[in-house]
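Reopening this ticket.

The earlier resolution said the output was attached, but the attachment link was broken on my side. Pasting everything inline this time so it's all in one place.
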Amino acid sequence: MDELAALVETAGGECVASLLQQRAAPDPRTFIGEGKVAELKELIANADCQLAVFDNELTPSQMRVLSEELGVRVLDRSGLILDIFAQRARTREGQLQVELAQYEYLLPRLTGMWTHLVRQTASGGASPIGTRGPGETQLETDRRHIRRKIQKLREELEQVRKVRSVQRRRRERNAMPVVAIVGYTNAGKSTLLNTLTGADIPANDRLFDTLDTTTRRLQLDEAQEVLLSDTVGFIRKLPTHLVEAFKATLEELKYADVLLHVIDISSPDMRTQIEVVEELINQLGAGATPCIRVYNKCDRYIGELPHGENIVCLSAKTGEGTSELVRAIAAVLGRESRRVTLRLPYDKGGVLDTLRREAAVTSLDYREDCVEVGVTVKPELWGLVRDYVIEEN
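Inline output:
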């Protein structure tokens, strides 16, 4: 409920009262039952509220009945998160993704929005004068319009996906490893990106401050550079159509070389948040990607800090511990890649071309009978270069 209150504040509202209920199963008509509806109605009247927000997803009919009974606008958790996303999206891609999710959320909820119109307006029915029409209801017209919009938005997002895959192939050719920052909303992902790369992206203490993916270069050492990507934060009960709409952005996780799972160690719900993020990572097909757990906000934590392989504790705000993180990223990438010096005969120009295209060439020295190449190679290229290695760094 604290998280729901924080979401309301993020959307620009103020939480003045909350109500909890335990029951074996939701009431099919009102979700909370008649007695609780009466109690909630009294609470709304006393607190002078304009909006009632439910932490669970409501069916379209439950939303309509509750709105009529309570006399205020009713919103469920999914609708609230969509509203926040609509406020936050800045880039065209972000706006497209939010718009698609909003329309998919709206489509089943159109029923009952047109009670001020007679549903069937064909001639022959008991329609008011001036409303007899071609036989299509306002509801059907709207549904058709929204379905058309959804189709158009999906096509536009498919174009975005194609552009991303072209950019991804270019990065792979340039042998630039990608490190994706993931985590629960407000865990400190944007602050970490700013601290590591000097990026100047907004990083505020509020939920869903980042919707649009930001990518920056990060120099790990003199030979290795990576691309560091900030992603949208996850949250419990994230609407499924929202995950679907943001697939174009979130599928970047699947192609990342390393994931940085940023965890707010100062949060009392830390364990639940970790589970939510890991479940979504698996859902997006990135479960097998090497992952470093980054326990953030350690400056606020009193107690024993976690330790072990692929675990780093830091404070993104103060910068303390970030050098250990850089070393951990280099170590994970280094397990897969090898830095070697090769001696290539001049008749092996094709091998050199492949390395320039698919590996990170760090030095070239043209000798009388060969070319000495300093290069970082991935396991899949090892068979190609093994015979020419003169030194492994």
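Reporter confirms the inline version is readable. The longest helix spans residues 138-173. Confidence is low (pLDDT under 50) at residues 114-125.
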